[in-house]
Amino acid sequence: MATTAPVHAHAAPQGFIRRYVFSLDHKVIGLQYYFLALIAVFVGMFLSLLMRTHLIWPAAVLPLIGEIKPETYLQLVTMHGTIMVFFVLTTAPQSGFGNYFLPIQIGAPDMAFPVLNMLSFWTTFVAFVVMLAAFFVTGGAPLHGWTGYTPLSALTNSGPGEQLGADLWVTSIAIFCVASLMGALNFITTTLDMRAKGMTMFRMPLTVWAWFITAILGLLAFGVLLSAGILLLLDRNLGTSFYVPLVVVNGQVMGHKGGSPLLWQHLFWFFGHPEVYIAILPSMGVASQLLSTFARKPIFGYKAMVYAIMAIGFLGFMVWGHHMFMSGMSPYSAFAFSIMTMAIGVPSAIKTFNWLGTLLHGRIRFHTPMLFAIGFVSLFVSGGLSGPFLAQPVLDIPLHDTAYVPGHFHLIMGVASIFGIFGATYYWLPKMFGRMMNETLGKIHFFITLIGTYAIFMPMHYLGMAGQPRRYSQLTEVAYLHHLIPLNTFMTYAAFITVAAQLIFVINLFWSMFKGPKASGNPWEATTLEWTTATPPPHDNFGGHTPVVNHGPYEYSVPGAPRDYIMQTDPAGVPAH
Amino acid sequence: MATLSSPVTIQTPKAGKGGGGLRPPAFGGGGDGGRNDGFPDYGRRLRRARLGLAVAVAPIVMLFVSFTSAYVVRQGLPTLDERTNTYVRDWIPVNLPLALLLVNTGLLLVSTITVELARRQITRQVALAPVRSIPGVSLGQERAFPWIAITAVLGGGFLAGQWMAWRELADRGFYLATSASSSFVYLLTAAHAIHLAGGVLVLLYAATVSLLHKPVEARRIVVDVTAWYWHFMFLLWVYIFVLLWFVR
After folding, report:
1. B205 touches chain A (CB under 8 A)
2. SS in 3 state form for A426-453?
3. B66: which chain A residues are within 8 Å (Cβ-Cβ)?
4. Which H or E element spans position A248?
5. What is the ipTM metric for this complex?
């Protein structure tokens, strides 16, 4: 039974501006986030190519850019990390796909607070513009890394880019915090209050669970980062000494006194570690969704998956100290943080086990989204296994400032999350635009990207163990690293090929959006609510009625059912056959 | 259609906490005024707005927890003295203008009472609106007191009082960057003041929408949520005051 009462708060908008620019429709806002992240990821990748080029040809003079000086290299490091973490990994999987599909998957006509939703996107947009502006001011972008360690980041004369560029950087992050808080508020309220009849919490798809828990993490973490950013701005501009001790820069005694650089590290990493899960959890949700759908099997251990997401989210707040083993913390604290960090391995292993269990004996359909989901699991395992090593203080101290750490987090947090975004794009584009993406191009894109990312980031572990430091701009003149130049060269070529393969994706994306073959209403024969509505979904998502949910999200291959899948809205009970 | 021949006086119902809590069968979307007036399901929208507020309190709490931890850690931290090259304690207790802050606290306390009266008044108006619309029925005497405006004025008074407290601190030689302790005093009071100023703006909005012929149910949502936010702001201020006074 479907209710026919008016279901939507605001009428379908007329006119270009209300429809596509200042839209209140969660689907348009989701796409706005997605395309913002798409622009950001190309900016970020371009910066990484400059870095990789400089590492093997330090004297190269690049067209338009010129020679990359050491400080320029640090600016590239900073902006690459910041843009990728905030404007890609936080923006696309959570704000982009979450905005588009969370309301539809729970059977709601829109987000709980549509105006707030629009504000949160445009605030993110402003943050992005402010961040990019840092490139163009006197001194250029800051060079303090995406972690912005004090006192380097708190002093305006500590290096080029630390004047206005660093102010813009901090301001952008503060604005981004506010935007993320508004978004998280909307996600949580929507999930709790707007589920359709029959959509109990344990009938929600794992994507919704992941977006929901991620929103809770964001809600608690971004407030802390905001506080850290406010203190940093005060130190930089109003002469306070929250982070800066008595310090001498270029022979000049600065006016600060008594501040604690470690205070920044604590506040930053209290946000920073949950941020890792903010980036990866939505992709975990997508991977679960895709593996179940394309293996034609219920997800293995649905409730265990939900509790594992919760456990990862909870433990994520207990482990920030493992980023600070180098800071001279008490061995007892280090021990506690180390134990808690390794404890995260347990829910992570539960998830991996369940993903593999889902694949076992499945009738797997190797479509492109499925390939990316399997690729996600592969990267999650490869990147995750180095985590317990870094969780040991005695191992972390020699490895901390080497290429080992970027190898670890790029695989697990960076590329794994990106694979979730790719999988979600190939999977949901037929629903979002009513057209299929090209499978051949998709598979070529998948294999080049998978092999390419392993070729770039796997060797970083070896480089790290061989002692190659991270963040250093010139390594070719260092005698003990000479034998590593060929491997570095190989990685740079791999980076160019992998980035070039992303052009295949972009061409496929835009070509399919407009010219791809028409998609049916449910091309993947999936069960969740977005596949019960029209393609693309109408303004109020379900065309004037609200769905009533009778089934769990992953009822595939149910014995006795006429088809190998049961939609969530199918009548209760298995039809006798 | 027959109408009642003589006016009937109906006792004003008492409005307590809550209200609008029952989940109506119809489904609604959009709870923040996104062109959704005219959508009738106000009970549901009120519930959603209250839930949204409860969620929004979490990051504000985290912000102040974060400031508090920084405050406590910094207070216990020794500083390197460059003359003697030894670690010394450099925490200077701030000479707070106690009397002024107590007056401000009193203003805010009164304003929480007035905002609660505003909330109850508009809750009554909503409850009685259907009765009022019956032709021939008049209700008992109740003056519509401008509690919202009074609260906004009291809130403005508190902010002015905090400004005076800063001036007083400056007169006593404590500027933002004078010492770590004074930095935190300004930081915590300013962060609270900004949040309270947001509440004042919403109150002014609520007072204005009453002139814009918005349905009383829609205005009630704004007033109700702002009232709860205001109570939270009072508790937050008490917490900050206690922290600054006792952890000096």
Report:
1. no
2. HHHHHHHHCECCCHHHHHHHHHHHHHHH
3. 223-224, 227-228, 267, 270
4. strand A248-249
5. 0.92
